[in-house]
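Hi both,

Apologies for the delay on this - the queue was longer than expected. I finally got the 2-phosphoglycolic acid-bound model through. Below you'll find the protein sequence and the ligand SMILES exactly as submitted, and right after that the structure tokens for the full complex including the ligand.
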Amino acid sequence: MDGTLIDSLPDLAESGALLLRHHGLREPSAEQVRPMIGDGVRLLVERLLDFAGAGPELDRSAATKEFLAIYEPRAAQHTRLFPGAIETLKTLRACGIRSAICTNKPVAAATAIAERLGFSDLIDGIGGGDSFSVRKPNPEHIRLTVHAAGGDIGQAVMIGDHRNDMEAAKGVPVPGIFAAWGYGADEMSRDATIIAENILQIPSIIEEL
Ligand SMILES: O=C(O)COP(=O)(O)O
């Protein structure tokens, strides 16, 4: 979801900065937060605290809860779908292809964003980082999300911008399409079946796989 379907960096970075400011710590820029995204909220918060040099006295579970309390109400404030995302979801739907979100983000935040940005009607299911007992890079996260969305894992593809997405896809196995427009570094595409430069290419890539 983050860095593939939506550009959520501004709200994640702002929330991270507010958390650190609240504790009197050094605030990162959005560019510094970008590579911290993709492994769920807990690791994002740990990376933020490490960046700011927070000591062991700052409880990481409490800071994660605090971050979520800051982030959830503002999660769709500056966050936007990537250009072409709606057209792509509509094209897939018109081709009879289901779209599900398999994200390490908490499912409540992912669902709220889809509703607030007005694309929940085009999504057949959401498997969040807390929906199951596993999450990406565990391939079971993809299997369970596809199943919950009424899809057939034998026909599924995974689109993502992070190593976790491609590793999980390889584990299922399903084809992994690396989203080059996202937040992941180029080397994260190592396990990808194919690299997409633009979200609008997704329907034709799926057709050719
Ligand atoms: O790390 C997150 O919180 C979300 O990232 P994802 O949507 O790419 O899984």
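Main takeaway for now: The pocket of 2-phosphoglycolic acid is lined by residues 1-3, 37-41, 103-105, 136, 162 (CB under 6 Å).

I'll put the files on the shared drive as well.

H.
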